[in-house]
Amino acid sequence: MTNQELINLFQPVIIQITTPKGTGTGFYLKPFHLIVTNDHVVDGNSEVVISGKLFQDTSAKVLFMDSKYDLAFIEPPMEVEFPEVKLSENKVKDGQTVVAIGHPYGLNYTATQGIVSKAERLQNQIYFIQIDAAINPGNSGGPLLDTHGNIIGVNCAAIKGGDNLGFALPVRYLIEDLKEYQPHYGKFILKCYSCETLISEENIDKENPEYCPSCGAKIHWPLKENAFYEASGISLEIEKVLQSLGINVKIARKNTNFWEIKKEGYKIYVTYILQTYYITMDAVLCRLPKQNIGKVYEYLLMENNTLKHAWFSLKNQDIILANLIYDQDFTPEIATLKWKEILENSDNYYKTLINDYGCIPLIEDDSELFMD
């Protein structure tokens, strides 16, 4: 298969995983009805946000964590019909061509091709596939494929400063964990990194949940804290206001200081800019038209005279409805007043600019990655 054919085959099953500390990749396996990723991608959370080609952003439970093999399983959305992709049964060989698919730096569905530098590189008593295909932040948890479209490993690491020096966990370790988890499907299972005991709510020591009940090794039991990230400080106050305005902050949260609200045709971004101490809300509505730009300018200037807590601005060709609050001036009352104006009016402005002034709809892309 060509790289494009591999991307087309895997796009429906490649999942983007978001936690407050970053993003990663996962992939769906139909025979097991699970999303596979790295343990370090879920980052100790009992719940993450997932999105894919076949469904919108949604919260999902983490069902399995194995820090030794750096594997985790996530519950997929029940109503989605995913296609099936296959795990390889063939032995990986030095020099064979491989392709890694994932979301490096949030750039969706990126494929990088390389070769297997060493089929079995022993590290900490685990054999890894060493590859020269580029593995970058965000690739973690994605599948490593052979040229026939079979999954031969799970991308998990790259050496900082290394020149395309990446590693993937061989699929045999994944199969081992999948088979062990199968009898417990639907329950949360933590695999002890020391003795490999499967720990569940049935056998964990309720009085000492931070220790393995079998060998006594210290563990992170996420259900103890009901471990979905809880914001603090200004970020917590921001989320309280957004929640009061009807925003699901678990879905909107992209990191500890950045939230993305998806609307029909456009997006609204809330950002706490630590360098300047400003909190901004930007509704990026559409782009300037190629003709009659003067009429658009006139409309935007007139609307700026009527708006009380927001204003129109341009960034390159993008038309943005925005406001900002200095963090020391932040109160729930001020934020509610300012943000409510954008949230209540952005839909009408979007439709007016598109339908009456010929503005150009935004194309769904990763432009938010490059926003200031």
Distance between the termini: 39 Å
CATH fold naming of the domain at 233-370: Yope Regulator, Chain: A
Number of helices: 7
Strand line-up across the major sheet: 1-2-3-6-5-4
Helix content range: 10-25%
CATH architecture of the domain at 233-370: 2-Layer Sandwich
The profile of the biggest β sheet is: 6 strands, antiparallel, barrel
Number of strands: 20
Quaternary state, please?
A: single chain
Low-confidence stretches: 366-372
What structural class is derived from the secondary structure elements?
alpha+beta
Q: Mean pLDDT, as a whole number? A: 90
SSE order, one letter for each helix or strand: HEEEHEEEEEEEEEHEEHHEEEEHEEH
Shape: globular
Structure, described:
The chain is an alpha+beta fold. Among the domains are: 97-171, Beta Barrel (Thrombin, subunit H), CATH 2.40.10.10; 233-370, Yope Regulator, Chain: A (2-Layer Sandwich), CATH 3.30.1460.10. Helix content is 21%, strand content 34%. The chain is built from seven helices and 20 strands. The protein has helices at 3-10, 39-42, 171-181, 233-244, 249-252, 293-306, 332-355, and strands at 14-19, 22-29, 34-37, 47-52, 55-66, 71-74, 97-102, 110-123, 126-131, 143-145, 151-158, 166-170, 189-191, 198-199, 253-255, 258-262, 267-273, 278-287, 311-315, 318-326. It has a six-stranded antiparallel barrel with strand order 1-2-3-6-5-4. A hairpin with a 4-residue loop joins strand 5 (55-66) and strand 6. Helix 4 (233-244) packs across helix 7. The longest helix has 24 residues, at 332-355. The relative contact order is 0.11.
